[in-house]
């Protein structure tokens, strides 16, 4: 934070603590000039106020909390940009990428810095890493179990499901049925292939698909005609003349989707004949896709999760459309 905010936070924090201390001292003094326990003359609803001091336990507790607050703020970050005497931090700050985080984590371990997130990750790997390896490796401890075999292991798929919910559900949904622009992983329709190793490759390295915009090249009439032909491939009722004209223009699409419109897993080009639509199958949605194009990105998880966890997630995803 900038210098102004740092000073502002420091003044407010210390001002509040010392203000409470001043209030405690002020309240502990007898300013009435009266004998302890004597009536003050203030009566409300039949209840008289007596000149009694603050309870000792209450005062001691107040003093303890003030001292505790000052010690805590001295040891840990909390006063603006002051990092605390212990050098503790909740996480590596100001990182902008995974590479920067890994570099910061390595530096923290080398310098023995108290980075809480790093310490918890190391502890988690010590506790759970062995379990992940037990579920993903053969008895020799060096060879991965086949993903199809792991998919039939109830304990392994339960772990894979939890990893999926933590990392994949934000896009694909907790039930893995996807949403507009995010594939349904339960229906057996795969852009990049649904074989075990293809699923794993998708998770490891990510995918980047690009449907170019054809609006300028085709014009509005061309967009409408190609949309009619594309819709006809899945058995939809369209204007036959428009569809025929669209078929002639479809040559620009065939390079990715094939002359038969059945797609190409090597390029992530969808099958246009099965009536399964990633961005919507209405005429308006199809025309919008042709006119403006689409860009889909599946992030790579290898450096984030590691191959052991990806092996379990791959098995879980594979089990969704292939049974257990």
TrEMBL record:
SUPFAM superfamilies to which the protein is assigned, alphabetical: Cytochrome c (SSF46626)
Q: Where in the cell is it found?
A: Cell inner membrane
Entry keyword annotation includes Nucleotide-binding:
no
Entry note: cofactor: Binds 2 heme C groups per subunit.
Q: Which residues form the Cytochrome c domain?
A: 155-234, 241-321
What InterPro entries does UniProt report for this protein, alphabetically? CcoP_N, CcoP_N_sf, Cyt_c-like_dom, Cyt_c-like_dom_sf, Cyt_C_IC, Cyt_c_oxidase_cbb3_su3, Cytochrome_c_Oxidase_Subunit
Please give the cofactor(s) recorded in the UniProt entry for this protein. heme c
Identify the metabolic or biological route this protein is part of.
Energy metabolism; oxidative phosphorylation
**Primary place of residence?**
membrane
Give TM segment ranges.
7-26, 57-76
User: Which controlled-vocabulary keywords does the entry list?
Assistant: Cell inner membrane, Cell membrane, Electron transport, Heme, Hydrogen ion transport, Ion transport, Iron, Membrane, Metal-binding, Oxidoreductase, Repeat, Respiratory chain, Transmembrane, Transmembrane helix, Transport
Purpose of the protein = C-type cytochrome. Part of the cbb3-type cytochrome c oxidase complex.
Quaternary structure, per UniProt, is: Component of the cbb3-type cytochrome c oxidase.
For this chain, the family text in UniProt reads:
Belongs to the CcoP / FixP family.
What is this protein identified as? Cbb3-type cytochrome c oxidase subunit
According to its UniProt entry, this protein's organism is Oceanisphaera marina
């Amino acid at each position: 934070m900038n210098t102004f905010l740092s000073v502002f936070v420091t003044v407010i924090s210390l001002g509040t603590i010392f203000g409470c201390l001043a209030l405690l001292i002020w309240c502990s003094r007898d300013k009435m000039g009266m004998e302890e326990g004597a009536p003050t003359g203030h009566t409300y609803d039949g209840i008289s106020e007596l000149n009694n001091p603050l309870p000792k336990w209450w005062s001691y507790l107040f003093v303890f909390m003030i001292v505790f607050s000052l010690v805590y703020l001295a040891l840990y970050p909390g006063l603006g940009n002051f990092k605390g005497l212990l050098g503790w931090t909740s996480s590596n700050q100001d990182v902008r990428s995974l590479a920067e985080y890994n570099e910061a984590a390595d530096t923290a371990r080398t310098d023995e810095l108290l980075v809480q997130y790093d310490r918890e990750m190391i502890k988690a790997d010590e506790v759970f890493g062995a379990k992940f390896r037990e579920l993903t490796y053969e008895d020799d401890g060096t060879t991965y179990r086949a993903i199809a075999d792991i998919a039939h292991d109830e304990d392994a798929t339960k772990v894979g499901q939890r990893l999926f919910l933590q990392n994949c559900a934000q896009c694909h949904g907790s039930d893995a049925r996807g949403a507009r622009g995010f594939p349904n992983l339960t229906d057996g329709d795969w852009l990049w292939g649904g074989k075990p190793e293809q699923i794993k490759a998708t998770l490891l390295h990510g995918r980047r698909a690009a449907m170019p915009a054809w609006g300028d090249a085709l014009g509005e009439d061309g967009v409408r005609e190609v949309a009619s032909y594309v819709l006809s491939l899945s058995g939809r009722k369209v204007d036959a003349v428009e569809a025929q004209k669209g078929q002639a223009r479809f040559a620009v699409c065939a390079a990715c989707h094939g002359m038969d419109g059945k797609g190409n897993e090597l390029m992530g080009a969808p099958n246009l004949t099965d009536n399964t639509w990633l961005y919507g199958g209405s005429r308006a949605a199809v025309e919008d896709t042709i006119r403006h194009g689409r860009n889909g990105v599946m992030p790579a998880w290898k450096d984030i999760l590691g191959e052991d966890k990806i092996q379990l997630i791959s098995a879980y995803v594979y089990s969704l459309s292939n049974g257990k």
